[in-house]
Specification:
The chain has about 375 residues and is an alpha/beta fold. Helices cover about 40% and strands about 15% of the residues. It contains 15 helices and 11 strands. Helix 4 packs antiparallel against helix 12, helix 5 packs parallel to helix 12 and helix 6 crosses helix 7. The relative contact order is 0.16. The protein binds pyridoxal-5'-phosphate. The site of pyridoxal-5'-phosphate has 13 residues, from helix 6. Pyridoxal-5'-phosphate binds next to helix 6.
């Protein structure tokens, strides 16, 4: 229960800084820092989708814009219901927020404490780890296995040792693009220690093509102690519109919903509802286009005997055969911005799958830097 005193204690200097975290962190993490960037830079650093905003969403948003001088709070019940229905969930099992970041933020804030750690792998998406640390919550990082997959047994062991906590996995994982298989996910859910919640971040799940990759949403529907986050920033190509959601048990959603900043923008909300109405076309088309371009890059890498992690998302981690830090800083000078370094995978470069043309430029620049 969030008391007023507890709340006030959190809004100290640390928490005030925390509100700024996403923008500051994104800017600081970027591989490209200076203002002297080529104007035709190819941005392959943030796992965005070059397919862009779906046409149906754009039309709905344009139509909504002139009416956005009103809050339109009364529309949100229907909007949340449409988002829930798209995944066969009840409206009270869904918490919509500003990107999936808001849902992840609330999950970490409400389900970790001074004695309940965040338990995850390294490297993974930094948001939850950075938030837990800023809040002074313990963080347990487990190593990836040699095949770059999460060691689900270690995650469970650590949760048992801490007598409970929040296990966070990103599936497929950012930055590795590797997946936790359906079988391992099943084992993880069946073996969650007492007082332990599993948080599965499925930002990239739509891009995977392995038959062993499966969503954790069925566990939410079955009432297991599992929360799934989804976003409209990736396959839906709506990163700047800032919409995502958590799917979880209704009791948790009701308890933590007051932690949301507020409703999302009505323009964005109408856009995602329109995109969802057309998802039978949008999802397979976009997945096929990305898969084709990703496959071309994989084939090119194989021809050159360059190692990479088998990808399940819209990005690939490539082993550049030496410390990648300098490699990563050289590429933007030639007009391509890859992802930043991801220790402890020091020899790896992460690249987002862009358009065919962008990837042709990536291959060209990558090869120039590789050969120097
Ligand atoms: C794994 C993962 N989860 C969550 C997010 C947050 O995205 P958003 O807040 O746009 O949904 C990102 C952003 O890149 C991500 O890579």
């Amino acid at each position: 229960m969030l008391t007023r005193r507890g709340f006030a204690a959190r809004i100290g200097a640390g928490a005030a800084a925390l509100r700024m975290l996403p923008e500051m962190a994104y800017a600081q993490r970027a591989a490209v820092q200076n203002a002297n960037m080529p104007s035709d830079m190819v941005w392959l650093n943030a796992n965005e989708n070059p397919a862009g905003i779906p046409r149906a969403a754009l039309a709905a948003m344009s139509e909504t814009l002139p009416t956005a001088w009103r809050y339109r709070y009364q529309d949100f019940r229907g909007i949340y219901a449409a988002i829930a229905k798209s995944e066969d969930l009840a409206p009270d099992q869904v918490m919509v927020g500003s990107g999936s970041s808001e849902a992840l933020h609330i999950a970490v804030d409400s389900l970790t404490s001074a004695t309940r750690p965040l338990i995850t792998v390294t490297p993974t998406y930094e948001g939850p780890v950075e938030l837990a640390r800023t809040l002074g919550r313990p963080v347990v990082l487990t190593k990836l296995r040699p095949d770059y997959t999460a060691d689900v047994h270690k995650l469970v062991e650590e949760a048992a040792r801490a007598r409970g906590g929040l296990i966070y996995i990103c599936n497929p994982n950012n930055p590795t693009s590797a997946m936790t298989s359906k079988q391992e996910l099943d084992w993880l859910v069946s073996n969650l220690p007492p007082d332990t919640t599993l948080l599965v971040d499925e930002a990239y799940i739509h891009f995977g093509d392995s038959p062993n990759l499966a969503s954790a949403l069925p566990y939410v529907r079955e009432g297991k102690n599992v929360i799934v986050t989804r976003t409209f920033s990736k396959i839906y190509g709506m990163a700047g519109m800032r919409v995502g959601f958590a799917a979880a048990n209704a009791e948790w959603v009701a308890r933590v919903s007051p932690l949301r900043i507020n409703v999302i923008s009505i323009v964005s909300a109408k856009g995602v509802v329109a995109a969802l109405e057309d998802r039978q076309n949008i999802l397979p088309e976009r997945k096929a286009a990305m898969s084709k371009t990703r496959g071309e890059l994989c084939a090119w890498l194989k021809e050159r005997n360059l190692r990479f992690i088998e990808p399940q998302a819209n990005f690939i981690m490539i082993d550049v055969g030496r410390n990648a830090r300098e490699f990563i800083s050289e590429m933007p000078k030639l007009g391509v911005a890859p992802g930043r370094p991801f220790p402890p995978l020091d020899n790896m470069l992460r690249v987002t799958i862009g358009t065919g043309q962008e990837m042709a430029k990536f291959r060209d620049v990558f090869w120039k830097v590789y050969k120097t």
